[in-house]
Amino acid sequence: MDNDFEYKFIKPDKSLADFVESFWSLQNHSDESKDIVILPDGRIDLFFSQSATVPFHITLSGLETHPDQATLSAKTTMFVISFKLLATEYILQNTVSNLLDNAKYLPDDFWGFNADDLQDFEHFCEKASLKIHSLLGKEIDTRKQKLFNFIYSSNGALTVSELSERVFWSSRQINRYFKDQFGIPLKTYCSILRFRASFQHIKEGKLFPQQNFTDQSHFIKEVKKLAGVSPKVLKRNQNDRFIQLSTLNSK
């Protein structure tokens, strides 16, 4: 990644593993803005950010189903909580179906955060973890918990019918839950997770199916659908524009 950009990543405490995928930060230390592309990755993101030109603000982003063009402004500091889907019901306590391929601004004092919290990333993570713990009052539906454990552990490789059989919940009911809560069918979400799981392989130049894609043509078709470009172009990642690939460690 460009030396002007600083990326940090912290995994949540195990007690939050069902709800939080990660905490991460991205800073643009440059005096110039940078055009980037955000790829669908199956996460619900809560952004706390400010830049040289934009004051502190908080944004909640729903699921993405296509690549999103964005600009990282000069002198941007961005701290982010990336949620797993179960968090929408038990932490955010709301549906995000209306935020599909979209985002919304939240109050500037949401969860008691302010611009001062962007001074120290580790402190931010600690404060966010305490807040999330304080919101976990509702008893968790174990059927949903098992469903998401299977979805994430398989990187979306299990079919809807296989998941239905494992958690004793009909495919129709699961899809209704997904559409109502997240805005997309489960099959679509699993495709996004398989795509995301291919990021590391693509960065390493392994431009062939790795995550239960039917064949090479299916792999290329899915990558083009979700990234807007072929696996070869994605691997090239000209100007580090595909930000999720740029932040991956090369092996």
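Next protein, fold it too.
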Amino acid sequence: MISIQELTKETGVTVRTLRYYDQIDLLRPSGKTEGGHRLYSETDVIRLQQILFLKEMGFSLKVITNMLVTDELSLKESLQRQLNFVQEEQKKFNRMERILQAVVYSAEIEGELDWKIMFELIQLSKQSSRIREMFQKQVFSDEEQKLLHNLPNMSEEDENVREWVYLLKQLRSFMNKGKDASHDEVQEATRKLMEKCLEMANGDETFLDKLWEVRKSKEDSQKMSMYPIEEELLVYMDEAFRIYDERERKK
């Protein structure tokens, strides 16, 4: 038998909390000293450990009492239900994390929060992965599908993705300033973007051409769950790519 002070020291639970557990009949001490001080047995310590574990797993004291004291609830079934709940919540939070990360990047690219794009990002997050997989199989060969894994994921915090975001932000800024796609600054940003594209595609230009055609189609890019880019910027980028390609061929 150990005193309440010793139990507090051993478990980190306060005296006030232990007294409260006693009051609600959740954890009653097995004995008392002649002076009326609470004494806890090894069984009591195990019960406290159960309580602390269940609290950590998100159960309320009322539910814990029903599980451990009154036996109104099955401990195993309750744990299974709680596991199912936590797994569903985790999926929800993971989805929220991906959306928020994409929104943060979106704000960098657009220069402000674009609610239309944010709505599209939410819609994309709800889209079944089966749609993307089926579309990829229809459009890309087996080898090309492997290269798709190298695409920047706007839902992830990654230095490589930040480089893509920065280049898109630059091109959008040049477009808004009215700079022609042939302008040296635009072409320099395009060169850097092309280098990243070639690196991503392991130098497969045919794959990049096919991917760009998908990117320019709003419907197809949605099927691929690609970040939504407005048509005006896509047209601007397409012209910049065309000019860059022509200049490279003349070298």
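About the second fold: DSSP finds 13 helices and three strands in the chain.
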